[in-house]
Amino acid sequence: MASILLKNVVKSFGTFVGVQDMNLDVVDEEFLVLLGPSGCGKTTTMRMIAGLEHPTEGEIRIGDALMNDIDARDRDVAMVFQGYALYPNMSIYENIRFPLRMRQVPKAKHDDLIRRAAEMVELGPFLDRKPGALSGGQRQRAALARAIVRQPQVFLMDEPLSNLDAKLRASMRVQIKHMQRELKVTTVYVTHDQIEAMTLADRIVIMNKGVIQQIGTPDDIYSNPANTFVAGFIGSPPMNLIAGTAQSGTFSSAGVRVPCPANLSGNITLGIRPEDCQIGGDNLQGQVYGVEPTGDITYLTVRTANKNIEIKAGREFRAPIDSAISVGFDTSRLYFFGEDGSRVGVN
Amino acid sequence: MAHSTQTLEKGAAKAAPAAAVYSIRRPRSATAKKMFPYLLVGPAVLYLLAITLYPGLFAMYQSLFVVKFVNWSWAGLGNYTRIVQDREFWAALANTAIIGGLSLCLQTIIAMTVAFYCYRDPFVRGWRIVFLMPMLFMPSAVAFIWKLAFNDGRVISDLLMAIGLVSNNVDWLSSVWLARLTLIVADVWQWTPFLFIIFVGALQGQDEEIEEAARLDGASWGDIFWNISLPMMRPIIVVAVTLRGIDITTMFTNVYIMTQGTPGGATETMSYFIYRQGFRMFNFGYASAASVLMLLITIVIAQTIVKRAFKSGKS
C-alpha cells in the first residue's frame, strides 16, 4: 500500500504534448479516477505510473521511492487492461499464477493464493479453462484476479469495463469498488465514462488536452465545476451552457433571463443542470423540440433562438411538439462562467 | 399526408432505374454459372498437373521396370527389394538426415534467436524484407560462392589462419565432417532468413498489451519469450520448420557443385543418389523407385509432425 506522487510531469511524443506539467498526489488506499475524453492524456498518465512510458520531465514517486528509472517489472504495480491481456496459451489458473511465478513467491503458497483471488472475483469453477473459452465478463474477472493475487502496492485499471455490456458493467463496477475497499490498495482507474467515475471514485481528476481541469470528490465536481469543460462533461445529460450577457445583476440571452451577481458584466456563460429546471416559471421561454419519456423520467428539449436546452421533467410530463413552453430555474443553483470558461461570480 | 405521398413517389422513382439496371444483364444459364469458377482455376490446375502429377505418376510406373533407355522390362517390386538391400541408399538417407537435421536445427535456432532480439526494433519492423537478400541469390551461384570460399579459393582457410585458429590450409573435402560442414554452412547462410522472416513476423504480430501485462507481472523479456511467445508461435514454427525440412531433404545443388558426394559418399544426399543412379548410371527404374520411397518417407514424417503439433496446440 502506498501513495503516488506526480510532480511537474510532462510527456511529449515528438512535438505533441500528451501530458502537460502535471501535479497529482494520490493518497494511500485512495480510489482515484482519471476521467476525460479520448486523447486527454489519462491513459498516458497511468502508463507512466506503470512504467510503460517514461516521463519527458518531472518526477514520479510510489511510496517514497523515485520511480523514473525503475523498470515496470520492479515497480510492484498491477494493471488491468482494457483488452484483458490474458495469456491465451495458459489456463486461467496459470494466468493467475504467472505473477507469482515471476516474482518467486514460494510454490507452496501458490494454490492457496490463486484460489483465494479466484474466489474474490467468483471465478472458481473456471480455473482450468483457457481464456478463449470464457465470456468477456469472466475474462475481465480473470484479469482482476491476476492483478490482486500478489497484493501489489498499486492497482492500475485502464478502462477495464469498456468492453462489457451495460448490465455486466454495472455489476462489475460494484464488485471492483467492494474489492478495493476490502484489499485497501491504492487504485488509479482510467475511464471516459462519467458514471463509472462518479460511482467508483474517492476523488476524480478531470483531464482535457493533457491538462488537469479539476480534482475533487464526485460531489464536489458535480456541484462546483471549475470551468465549462467540467460542467459540460459531468452529468447525464450534462449541464446546459447558455452564452449571453450580464448587466447590472441580470443575465440575459435569447429567451432566457435570470438574476446574476451584480459584479458580473459582459459576455458570460450561464450553466444550469437539467435537473434544476421546472416546467412553469419565467426564466426561459421557448418551444418544445422533443419529449423523450424513459419511464422513470421524461427528457424535454426546449428550443430557444440560440440553443436547445435539456430539461428533466416529471415522469408524467407530455407536451406536443412546437408548443410554447416556459421554464423556471432553481436560481440558487445557477453557475456563471467567464469568457475563458472558468467559473465566475462565486462568493 | 402530403409528406408521405412525396416519399412514396421518391421511392418509386428510385426503384425504376434499379429495375432497368437489372434488366441490362443477360440472364446466365445455371451450367455456365457453375462452370465459371472451374474455368478460372483450370489453367493453373492443368499446369500443375502437367509438371507435378504426371511426372510423379510416371516415376511410380517406371519404378516397376528395369529401364535401359528404350528397353523396358517388367521388374515388379524388384527395384524396391534391391534398394532396401543397397548400402548406398541407406547411407544417402543417413547423410540427408544428418546434414539436413543439423542444418535445420542451426537455422531454426539462429533465426529464432535473432528474431527474439530484434523484433521490436523499428528498423527491423520497417525493413525486414532486406533480410531476405540471401534467398534472392540463384542457388547455383550461392553454391559456387561457397565452393570458392571453402575449396578453390581457400578464403575461409586464410581467414582462419589469420585469426590463428588453424596453422595450415584446411582441406575441407578430406574429412567426412568438414565436408558435411561446408554443405551445412552454405544452406544455413542461404535459408536462415526464410525462417527469420516468418518468426519475426509472428513475434511482431504478438499483442503488445500482453507483453506489457507480463512486464508488470514481473516477467523479463526472456520469461515472456519462453512462457508466452514460444508456446503461442508453436503452430507457425511447426509449419515453417516442416516446409524448410521438406526443402532440405531435396538438397541437390550444393552437393552437386561443392562436394559431388565426396569424400567416400559422406555428403551424398538422397537427391544426389537418385541423380547418380538415373543420370550417371542410367538405372532409370531404380532411380524412380528411390524417388518414390523418398516421397513416401517425407510425406509420412511431415504428416506426423504437423498432425501432432496441431493436435496438442488445440487442447
Folded structure, characterized:
The complex is a heterodimer of chains A (347) and B (315). Chain A is an alpha+beta fold and 347 residues long. Chain A folds into two domains: 4-229, P-loop containing nucleotide triphosphate hydrolases (Rossmann fold, 3-Layer(aba) Sandwich); 241-344, Nucleic acid-binding proteins (OB fold (Dihydrolipoamide Acetyltransferase, E2P), Beta Barrel). Chain A has helices at 42-50, 92-102, 107-120, 136-148, 166-183, 194-200, 218-223, 228-233; strands at residues 4-13, 16-26, 31-35, 57-62, 65-66, 77-80, 154-158, 186-191, 203-208, 211-216, 240-247, 250-253, 256-259, 266-272, 277-293, 298-303, 308-313, 324-329, 335-337, 343-344. The longest helix of chain A has 18 residues, at 166-183. Chain B has 315 residues and is an all-alpha fold. Chain B folds into two domains: 2-62, no CATH class; 82-314, MetI-like (MetI-like fold, Orthogonal Bundle), CATH 1.10.3720. Chain B has a two-stranded antiparallel ribbon with strand order 1-2. In chain B, strand 1 (65-68) and strand 2 (71-74) form a beta hairpin. In chain B, helix 9 crosses helix 11, helix 11 (221-249) runs antiparallel to helix 14 and helix 13 (270-280) packs antiparallel against helix 14. The model of chain B is unreliable at 1-20 (pLDDT under 50). Chain A binds chain B through residues 50-52, 71-75, 77-79, 81, 83, 85-90, 98-99, 102-103, 146, and chain B through 207, 209-210, 212-220, 223, 227-228, 231-232.
